[in-house]
Amino acid sequence: MNSPIYLDYQATTPLAPEVAAAMRPWIETQFGNPHSPHRMGREAAAAIEVARGHVASALGNSAPGALYFTSGATEAANWGLKGAAACLPADRRRIVTLATEHACVLDTVEWLGIQGFEIDILPVQADGLVDLDLLAARVTPDTGLVAAMLVNNEIGAIQPVAAIADIAHAGGALFFCDAVQGFGRVPLPLDSCDMVAISAHKVHGPKGIGALWIRDGIMVDALMHGGGQEGGNRSGTLSPALCVGFGEASRLLAARSDADHAHVERLWSVAADEAAGWTLNGPADARYHGNLNLRRTGVDAARLISEVRAVAFAAGSACASGSGRPSHVLKALGLADREARSSIRLGFGRYTSEEDLRAALALINDAAEKQLKFAA
Description:
Number of domains: 2
Number of strands: 12
Strand content: 5-15%
Shape: globular
Radius of gyration: 21 Å
Mean pLDDT: 95
CATH topology of the largest domain: Aspartate Aminotransferase, domain 2
């Protein structure tokens, strides 16, 4: 059976062959615990530090800070937000974020609200971008933390994180950035950030590993306790294979930056040509072009996904798939339930060919036309 054409890059990306090759020895023969004092352990620890350097380099070395490996971006977001909130002074227990954030941020701040923090979730404009004047008005003297993502996972909107961070800092608050979807793909103003969460499997690395970058001088309580690994900040035995995989994926991300960007721009042009009859969700300009979120009146997106089995694509976030609820991101744009349920997300990148993208869009368009014909 042939594999489907894969257009779900926001959910996960194909593992780069170079990454698989780099990881293999650390799975098969070099399996020492990196926290052990013998030679195998020291070799594993050294490989992890090389990998950490590759990830930090891809993230940007423009600001003084430390990069800590985690089990993924969800842990990184939980740690950054909960850990920083625990260190906020008593007169700054207010947290501001956006309605279009990933669930790992929204659910975490909801939990913090239960713990007694004041939570303010700001609406966004119709294109998914924050109104900076509104944000400035809502960052009050009792605000301790502001959280905003770099690139939205559902609609590809690129938030003006430097401006958001400036507003947070002007008000005396910290700024946390979920950079998962934008890492290595769009500019990240690391100098403006206090904490940044990233993930390996969104950049052709392995699942099960991410990282939290923390600026020097920022107090963040530990979330994981036990063996005191990662400088006593994040306990748990690190996987050399996963760390090496993340490192190699990051090295490739930096080395292939120009080529990957040019390829995505070509694919975006192809998709735009083939998507006549569909309406774009989210901004047309301030957007990562590897994310195409479209809607078509009268189309049932869930049915479309099941009908077009030769293409792997989505109706929204993989984390919320199967919930039966319309996308909270599309709802935040002001879309009605029926419009949200008529929306699909196509994600493409390094290993997507122009021919496959054209073929996939032809299949999707054909199935959509049939739906509309039979509904008439």
